[in-house]
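queue> pop job 88
queue> type: inverse folding (structure -> sequence)
queue> payload:
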């Protein structure tokens, strides 16, 4: 039995050249998806990719302090995965910070916005990793923005968070009471 899932969390550091950004953020994702397809069981729909991208990829000219040119290559990776035939989850976090997992309430949204969140708040890398791990387990296929709130009860139910991240028409129907 071959591998059926890959979680990708690549990122260029500050000062990367355009060629390095393309090679890491876009071509690296293409290569990992191709490798997954090559060792999979022959059915693309049985495979899964979970990608950590970035919020801000919908801005056609992001300023450097919002990610700059690297967001173009991250968006290309998202578009590639969306057209690859391999079901994928694309997690688009706000700015990242080093902090313990599970100390903030997490919020999701689409198109680089989070409803009800006045400003984007950096999210702990550990929280992003936990959400990505749950996406591997749940075999989710969704693309969403992810931030932390300044106030609120820390998120612990990552399966519910992934359901909340879906578009309304994709969400699980509530169970009927017996």
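queue> result:
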């Amino acid at each position: 039995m071959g591998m059926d899932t890959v979680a990708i969390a690549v990122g260029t550091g500050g000062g990367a050249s355009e060629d390095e950004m393309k090679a890491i953020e876009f071509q690296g994702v293409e290569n990992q998806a191709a490798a997954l397809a090559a060792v999979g069981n022959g059915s693309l729909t049985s495979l899964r990719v979970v990608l950590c991208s970035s919020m801000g990829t919908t801005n056609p000219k992001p300023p450097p302090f919002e990610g700059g040119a690297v967001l173009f290559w991250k968006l290309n990776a998202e578009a590639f995965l969306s057209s690859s035939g391999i079901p994928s989850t694309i997690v688009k976090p706000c700015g990242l910070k080093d902090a313990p997992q599970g100390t903030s309430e997490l919020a999701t949204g689409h198109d680089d916005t989070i409803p009800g969140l006045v400003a984007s708040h950096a999210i702990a890398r550990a929280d992003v990793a936990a959400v990505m791990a749950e996406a591997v387990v749940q075999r989710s296929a969704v693309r969403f923005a992810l931030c932390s709130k300044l106030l609120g009860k820390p998120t612990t139910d990552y399966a519910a968070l992934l359901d909340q991240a879906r578009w309304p028409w994709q969400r699980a129907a509530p169970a009927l009471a017996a």
